């Protein structure tokens, strides 16, 4: 999958970093984000760009704990529909259930489970567990997510939800800021990223927004979720990435995985889940584009071989015969 972040959430962080002294132009340039792409709150921004944005902002503001402070300050209801759904939920538990269903609309990342967050009853309590893969590669997402989890209920008057917090990364230089923001004992270098919840809180009433709003918001969120799922097939992402550079012949699974911000193994696994391999996707794309160029009748056979990534016409001819049962000249003549 291609990991993405909503434009609304990205814009909220951009404005937060700017309020702390970072220049917007420098942030946008370093993260390779076009400001126009942030106009539609529900548009998607590559997760790799969000990572660059966060790390540049930390440098420019001099605040290493910026992700914690963003999570402490951000009101999700102002930047994402899932925040509004939470405010229209009857209880904290219902808000959590809806967050888990629609959190992909905010940040869509690879997880070890179907759900980004899981409620587990173990280790002497009820825990909210973040199942994100490779969390230590970008601990800032853990920091901002847990800060939001703790600080929003406090701000809404619901109360302190966290009894204890575990994170898998090592203690940073600003470890003391964790306890100030999260208001709970912190365990670093833990085996999971998890928050132990006060069970008296989860059934506490929320209902900040009128209940009738809940159905309206859910309907819109379902539409956005369907659009997100249809736009993020692994095959479609690979084809979109490969097509502009097909003519170079320098298309490899390693290069594609790097551009998509995932590992080679993850790309293979995602494609396998859709019933194809990288080599099949590349071969079928070359086949489809070869037929497209043939139908135009303007490019020579040598030009077509080049355009679909073959270094010599003989190799192209063999591939074309495998695809169609005819040589390129026979196909064009017919």
SSE layout and pairings?
Elements: E1 4-6, H1 7-19, H2 24-31, E2 44-46, H3 47-61, H4 66-73, H5 76-79, H6 81-88, H7 92-102, E3 107-108, E4 117-122, E5 125-130, H8 139-155, E6 162-166, H9 175-182, E7 186-187, E8 193-197, H10 199-202, H11 212-231, H12 234-242, H13 253-260, H14 264-273, H15 278-296, H16 301-307, H17 313-324, H18 328-333
Describe what you observe in this structure:
The chain is built from 18 helices and 8 strands. The chain has helices spanning 7-19, 24-31, 47-61, 66-73, 76-79, 81-88, 92-102, 139-155, 175-182, 199-202, 212-231, 234-242, 253-260, 264-273, 278-296, 301-307, 313-324, 328-333, and strands at 4-6, 44-46, 107-108, 117-122, 125-130, 162-166, 186-187, 193-197. It starts with a strand and ends with a helix. Helix 9 links the parallel strand 6 and strand 7. It has 334 residues and is of the alpha+beta class. It has a 5-stranded mixed β-sheet. It has 2 domains: 64-228, no CATH class; 234-333, Arc Repressor Mutant, subunit A, CATH 1.10.10.
Largest sheet: 5 strands, mixed
Number of helices: 18
Q: What is the mean pLDDT?
A: 89
Number of strands: 8
- What general outline do the C-alpha atoms trace? elongated
Low-confidence residue ranges: none
